[in-house]
Amino acid sequence: MEVASLYRRVLPSPPAVEFASAEGKRLFAEAMQGGTMEGFFNLISYFQTQSEPAFCGLASLSVVLNALAIDPGRTWKGPWRWFDESMLDCCEPLNKVKADGITFGKVACLAHCAGARVQSFRADQTTIHDFRAHLRRCASSQDCHLISSYHRRPFQQTGTGHFSPIGGYHAGQDMALILDVARFKYPPHWVPLPLLWEAMNTTDEATGLLRGFMLVSRHTSSPSLLYTVSCGDESWKSMAKYCVEDVPNLLKDESLNDVATLLSHLVESLPANAGDLIKWVIEVRRKEEGESSLSKEEKERLALKEKVLQQVRDTKLFNVVHELQYPKGPCSSCSSSSDEDSLSQIAANVCCQGAAFLSGNLVSRYGFCCRETCIKCVEANGDGLKTVISGTVVSDGSEQGVDLLLPTSPSKTSLCNSNLRNKVVKYPSGADVLTVLLLVLHPNTWFGIKDEGVKAEFQNLVSTDNLPDLLKREIMHLRRQIHYLTGCKGEEACQMPMPPSP
């Protein structure tokens, strides 16, 4: 049945005061004088309207992440790295958010996954006085922004649960400025802070938990460069269970009398979709948007990814994992690859994902197919050749050419054929991802190993203490992602702090 169309809603006033009204302008000017609008200008510079009716949480977070100038480390469209709702799928598949919306804990989880520092508070975990103090502090700074999760009913507005950033605070009249991301419905507006607190102190029917607010700021270190945690579909839950429940139980086996046996035991018990949890971030560009050579910026980002990849492969853990997965054959100085890790497989999978992403398809990569893919070398701005997967993607009768810039680690001299098509290219493989997963799991995970000698040897292998700084930052960021993602597997443990390393 066709639904009647709507053009905006009339903002109920009171209790709200429209931002663009004479009263709203007066409140703004006075708050400016009071120094509690410092965060407003960065937020308004990157303010956006939610692109789907249920994307208020994703839109609010996109605004805040861009306002904090957090680099996502991957492209949005063309050459541009930028946070968009379509990139916020770490903790909940986009098609589920589109259908059902998103909960408070999952938004906090997404903020962590995106590389932000997050402090989240439900209404029963704090007081209105603490909320006021947090808002005043954030509104007086450009380094912190507050996202509110509230119900619209106390403001006499239509609708139910909603997310929006808070753009400022008027101390004299105790009012907060809501930058409503549903701009098609209501404009930005001032509301009494006690009423906003009442709107947050409501129960989300999806979880049975109270709503609240979160403070989002920058970490001192950058988010990941090469790897990210992903839950593009529901299959990630089996890996979350594996990390949290299965591994500790597997370690109770008293027959694990050496590291090789222990690792074999862990690998054999991996879920079939193990590779879907930690994925590597690849550069994607439309062919018409890039010349045959790489730009200086592309080359620099690719070099950082390659440095991380090489640092993974320089660990003792990688050597053990690689030898376990790929026993040495006649060409012992080369890395061998399984069919699963072949470049043709990567070309088909990543090419289609990249094309779906560039097309603006927020929900699914399915329906895209690669008509052809090839591997080629391009000049990296005078710094030698780099590996590129080039493909033509077909969808709904239209074609899109894409290039994917592939991070590789330097190959050692080998007896293998040096021809590009036959040469083994050291791109991120299953052994890399398994190594990273083992490094990322919290050190407490390995306390259950029965044999003290094996435990000491294995803990030494997975220790991050002596990792290079670049790789250590990568691992710690992924560890935070894993912690908050696995915390969300049941429901709202998402905002619990990560336990300290021993």
Could you explain the architecture of this structure?
It is an enzyme of class 2 (transferase). 36% of the residues lie in helices and 18% in strands. By secondary structure, the protein is of the alpha+beta class. Among the domains are: 17-218, Cathepsin B, Chain A (Alpha-Beta Complex); 282-307 and 336-428, no CATH class. It has a seven-stranded antiparallel sheet, sandwiched between helices. The chain has a four-stranded antiparallel sheet with strand order 14-17-16-15, covered by helices on one side. Helix 5 packs antiparallel against helix 15 (469-487). It starts with 16 loop residues before the first strand and ends in a 15-residue tail after the last helix.
Strand content: 15-25%
Quaternary organisation of the protein chains: single chain
Could you say what the CATH architecture of one domain is?
Alpha-Beta Complex
Biggest β-sheet description = 7 strands, antiparallel
CA-to-CA gap between the ends?
60 Å
State the CATH superfamily name of one domain: Phytochelatin synthase, N-terminal domain
Look up the CATH topology of one domain. Cathepsin B, Chain A
Number of discrete helical segments: 15
Low-confidence stretches: 329-341, 357-368, 411-426, 498-502
Quantity of strands, as a count: 17
- The overall average pLDDT, rounded, is 78
